[in-house]
Amino acid sequence: xxxGVAFFKEPIMQKTSPSLQFSTTRSCTFALxxxxxxxxxxxxxxxxxxxxxxxxxxxxxxxxxxxxxxxWTFHIDKVSSVWAIKQGFKEPAPCDIDTRGxxxxxxxxxxxNGKAELKWTGTAALGEMxxxxxxxxxxxxxxxxxxxxxxxxx
Length: 154
Known about the structure:
By secondary structure, this protein is of the alpha+beta class. It has a domain at 53-151: Beta Barrel (Lipocalin), CATH 2.40.128. It has 2 helices and 8 strands. An 8-stranded antiparallel β-barrel has the order 1-2-3-4-5-6-7-8.
């Protein structure tokens, strides 16, 4: 002993055996690999899109207040309307959907049939939707509608 300080040749902590170190390292490596595989291969379960599905719609003509009942179906990035099909718009309309709203969705869609055109705008949240629909007929005459809709039961 020098100057009252004790020197130890061995560290105070006990050494672990090489087999224990290998086993612990191997377990950690396996756990990390498993976590990586599960994270990469299993898709996150996304919340259902609040716009996707069928909607019961009440169209109210801005011209005369006449109410027309309709059913709209949103699927991925398209919208179709039973009423629009009767007016000659056979194909689902491409739909631009703003997904930044969390549980709400704003959208804009345009359907064309020759010179005739339908334009939808609206916002859906918590099973309810409101907006406008403008129908420009082939002769250039325009009819505008406001609407309220509720999500149809599955």
